[in-house]
Amino acid sequence: MTTEQKNKLIAISGQSEFAFITEGVESTATGYIVSEDALTRMAAALEAAEASTARITELEAQLQQSADQLATAQQQAQQLQGQLTTAQEENGTLTARVEELEADATITQTTKKDDKLLIKTGSGEAHLNPNSSMNRLADSLFGKPLQKSE
């Protein structure tokens, strides 16, 4: 046993030292004398080491699973970035098309107050226009609506 190993066993066992015995008058073997308490502490340390090894194995598996999930998430992020880039390009194309259409003099846009058809009827509310063919048909079927009192 190396000195380092001996020192670790002494630290774990709680003994101040390991007495060394040699083969001789009272013994037929050589080795170290270790108390029962020291052996119990060593066994507990071995069990703790085994439990730590099992926990490390479990954590390594979780680490690998997390690494796999991270790789998947990074791939999805790249796909989403590609989709975002495509959408931004399409948005740019559509914006350019809108600007092109707005610049085209043959296309006109009106607002409610500038619409000449609405101005002719005197009201922006087509359902109140008595000259509308749909309103005349409805009036003939259901009768004229009550007039608003102003």
Secondary-structure blueprint:
Layout: H1 3-13, E1 19-21, E2 31-33, H2 36-103, H3 116-121, H4 133-142
Antiparallel strand pairs: 1-2
Helix pairs in contact: 1-2
Kindly state the mean pLDDT as a whole number? 81
Tally of helical runs: 4
Shape: rod-shaped
The total of beta strands comes to 2
Radius of gyration: 47 Å
Provide the structure class.
mainly alpha
Distance separating the two termini: 113 Å
Give the H and E element order: HEEHHH
Helix amount:
55-70%
Strand line-up across the major sheet: 1-2
Portion in strands: under 5%
* Uncertain stretches: none
> How is the biggest beta sheet arranged?
2 strands, antiparallel
Describe this structure in words.
The chain is mainly α and 150 residues long. Helix content is 63%, strand content 4%. It is built from four helices and two strands. The chain has helices at residues 3-13, 36-103, 116-121, 133-142; strands spanning 19-21, 31-33. It has a two-stranded antiparallel sheet. It is rod-shaped, with a radius of gyration of 47 Å.
Question: How is this structure best summarized?
Answer:
This protein has 150 residues and is mainly alpha-helical.
Features:
150 residues; 2 strands; 4% strand; 4 helices; mainly alpha
